[in-house]
User: Fold these one by one.
Assistant:
Number 1:
Amino acid sequence: AFDIGKLRDQTGYVTYDPGYKNTGATKSAITFLDGEEGILRYRGYPIEQLAEKASFLEVAYLLINGSLPTQTEFDAFRYEITQHSLVHEDIRKILDGFPSSAHPMGILASIVCSLTAFYPKSISPELNKDELNLNIVRLIAKLPTIAAWSYKNSVGHPYVYPRNDLDYTANFLYMMFSFPTEKYEVNPVVVSALNKLLILHADHEQNCSTSTVRLVGSANASLYGSVSAGINALWGPLHGGANQEVIEMLEAIEQDGGDTSKFINKAKDKNDSFRLMGFGHRVYKNFDPRAKIIKVAADEVLQALGMQDSPLLKIAQELEQAALTDQYFVERKLYPNVDFYSGIIYKALGIPTEMFTVMFAVGRLPGWIAQWKELRENKEPIGRPRQIYVGELERDYTAIGERA
Ligand code: ACO
């Protein structure tokens, strides 16, 4: 029988905190988050100001380097990024090897990890500042190309090479939607909405994927290997994968006849594992400040694209209303989160559903890099949680023929 006293004698005391709900795993100077008040700041700057005024690359620079760039610093940073946006031609061969049914997140994680093979020096834990910066720039520069090509591969279309005259966000859209035979006209409303979305996703302190990046990085693993692990964590439907699930849920409700109350009741039924995707958050228990900004952006984009009457939007609005008035959601403080609205915007922008989480990964990249860099600079110890052992205490081996 399990004897907690005996176990304590063997292991000493450990804190039991499943899901790390109350465990501060690190000290960080990157992102401030107050879940009760709904506050989010990057390096002290309110998310509302950054989403309104900054470009995504400026925010990336801020997160990674700690301060907003001067014009000269920004121009140099942007120039470097454009110089590295091409990927090695052999990456095309790896991409070609994936079946078209492959989910782009799986491709993204694999190709990012494969960068360690193309840049073998990147795995050294002893890189100097310039070498480290080069790895960082390479990753920021190449991720949109890899992401867009993973999409092109999944639909069997020819890859489109990056254009250095376009800004980061516009270039990504161009590589996604252009064909050799038909150039994609970059729509400024779309670029502005995407820029905002990427900024809102850029960091979120010690969330699941970022903690993964830090944990893997704490073993002195490379930047590319650590970020690849973070991409896999983000893929999970309870994390970044929720934005894809939101649209799939809205479509399922529509196909079922559009009765939202049926699905709300399902979500409330404790014998049913169904959850309303895009509702609830581990940290924000009043509202998600990012969701507030995105909701306005979603309205603007849908207006600008003439899609304000879409049936999916109507279903989304009904769910949103229910969450604000239904006792079940109010009591548990389950508000629409950032993924609820980001899925709607991505859908309106014509981004394929399977690419939603990839878009999130492109946005989250600067945060992962900043957190990995901070971990290294602070020389943090290897992450190694303990456990409460609840298995058999001790038993004797029996030969296979003698087992019951
Ligand atoms: N629909 C219905 N009920 C829910 C939902 C939901 N979306 N979310 C939580 N609940 C209920 C739980 O059943 C639980 O009820 P109980 O107290 O009666 O048992 C209560 O609310 C608390 O839920 P927990 O799962 O304990 O909350 P936790 O903080 O662990 O989980 C999470 C947060 C994972 C985000 C959860 O709310 C969820 O699964 N949401 C849907 C998925 C989603 O949108 N994920 C994206 C998160 S944002 C991001 O990653 C960028």
Number 2:
Amino acid sequence: QQERAALKDKIRRLLKEKNAVLVSHYYVHPDLQDLAEETGGIVSDSLEMARFGRDHAAQTLVVSGVRFMGETAKILSPEKTILMPDLDANCSLDLGCPVDDFAAFCDQHPDRTVVVYANTSAAVKARSDWLVTSSCALEIVSALKDKGHKILWAPDKHLGGYIQRETGADMLMWQGSCIVHDEFKAFELEALIQQHPGAKVLVHPESPAEVVALADAVGSTSAILNAARTMDAKEFIVATDNGMMHKLRQLNPGKTFIEAPTAGNSATCKSCAHCPWMAMNSLAGVARVLETGLNEIHVDPELIPRARQPIDRMLAFTA
Ligand code: 13P
Ligand code: SF4
């Protein structure tokens, strides 16, 4: 406890000294979420993290999240220094979509508009026409469909499947998945719903279709927060990374949040509703990178203009 308090003090001081701001994702440890807000940074979803980092005056951004979030910040602000507590904090969607294979897939389908999820490398972004996050994917694909586009979608098959079902768009799909959301189980979720008949079910669309089918609200991390705030219920079952529980409980005192069931416990499942890469972020890591300047994110300068285009399109669409 004392050590945590000392680390927080150190980070507060270093953020000021280095003209830096802390940007945290909803899935990281509550300490990093609270500290980001308290020091003038932000805790948010990947879309708002990108926008905030681009618009903030600080010269250094400390991105507490996973690698693609740091890279997106660098692409949007190449002149800024982007630091991350752990450079190995990756994402199964990013790792499962290597650029050479992806480019070959795109080359086979030149008639399709390439829409990629933010959870990808800078090189994959540079090969795309549009970037989306889970909070704007539905609207963007729907608008493209209305203009007659056929879509090549990557990398998350569950999010892609959800959008296809909702919009009816013609989507050719890369077969990636998130190791956290892929673990949610419909059969066990149904049993839990029966035990809590008044509860509303909130599901992130990276979850399998059978789980999404049981949801009262489907959406990104920010959409889940919004649903919890506005829906008329006292109990909620939540199928997303359990890092979200902190904000959900903080913003909704008096409401109860229950984790949706995964395949097993920590001994038997790979992720158990908490992203192992998000978990690499720590107070000690943030203090260390601020102090030393280590763990800077670099993106190939040649890629930046091409990777920026699809991100700018998304930010303009959602402005
Ligand atoms: P959001 O875009 O909703 O923040 O989600 C990012 C992510 O990695 C979900 O697993
Ligand atoms: Fe990637 Fe899933 Fe972790 Fe999000 S929760 S960063 S999609 S592995």
Number 3:
Amino acid sequence: MKSQPRLNRERAKELLAEVDLLVSRAQQPAALRKSVVQLLNMEPTYNWVGLYLLKGGELRLDSWKGPAPTTHTSIPLGKGICGFAAKSGRTEIVSDVSKDPRYLQCFASTRSEITVPITHEGKVVAEIDIDGDVSNAHSSVDREFLEALAAKISKFCI
Ligand code: SME
């Protein structure tokens, strides 16, 4: 795999402006979630993007975009990197998934992962999960960007 350009602050700002536009035009919450997932998957280091909703104590895959479907369409709270982040309410950045015992494998190509809880009125309601095909694909720029994005779309995830 060739090296992939990581997200920079300038691009993050542009993407947040695009999200604002999507939000201002949003009619159906599910359609908004799908559009955001599609937008994110266009970034070079966002090779697989999924949005999970927290329902009945587990994460349920709502919308996704990437080369292949995942078998992890429901993940209990506390399981995997996704379940861990949803339980703690804190973003997880894993620079090398092969070294993280929590990791639930979906794709052989995945090397790194970022998982960002989406909260509404102080409670986790959903989560964005992004797999990268190179190790160390995501940084604090991605964290800040995705956390800002999560705040913008949280009301569409309840
Ligand atoms: N790797 C995740 C599971 C979801 S897939 O990446 C789509 C985890 O460890 O929770």
Number 4:
Amino acid sequence: PAFAAIIVAAGKGIRAGQPLPKQFADWRGKPVLRHSVETLLEAGAAPLVIAIPENGEAAAHTALDGLAGYTLVAGGVTRQQSVARALSAIESADTVLIHDAARPDLPPAVIERLLGALETHAGAIPVLPVVDSLAFEEEGMMAGAAPREHLRRVQTPQAFRFAAIRDAHAIWAGEADAGDDAQVLRASGGEIAHVAGDERLAKLTFAEDFMTRLPPLRTGMG
Ligand code: CTP
Ligand code: MG
């Protein structure tokens, strides 16, 4: 089915410490951002709106050289503002996927699971279990333990009925920065389904994340 998509790529990538903002840095032979743009275009995303840094147009066009079918918008100071600006650039859509450029390896099967769950829910997110035990820390010391049974690690892309997430973002605007878009929809009462995430969707955050630990998503490419 047709779906709109947003990729937020307007951050500074400070923690990654790469020579370029991390979304434009190299990952497995091509720019980080290019990976998910190619995957979402191949999956049929239309429109595909990418939030980029102020004055980041040249870097984005270089990273996406030869690709067509995307539009660029200037992002905001926070991730949430970048999403809000990208949502404003979409005139109409039934469903929208919102994705972090910082998660380049996006298995198409995750997209299918998310879109499937949207048939019954206003939102859907990919999650993984927590396998480590969890500790509360105070002053460098263990102050208690937390049960992990009901905790999940949440990834992107996150999928939403377009009108629901657009309205939820408008209501949330001005509040504290949201961790992700599912939190924004949840605050407006939207029901969000969990689907299986994928370890390959790991987010590139720190410099060491750029050291490859998992095999490439697609064999024979990049
Ligand atoms: N992002 C964005 N606009 C912002 C901040 C973040 O579009 N104002 C995007 C980033 O480009 C990234 C995603 O949100 O794709 C997740 O954010 P994060 O991993 O924190 O990336 P950065 O903010 O760029 O990194 P850092 O916090 O280390 O500076
Ligand atoms: Mg950040």
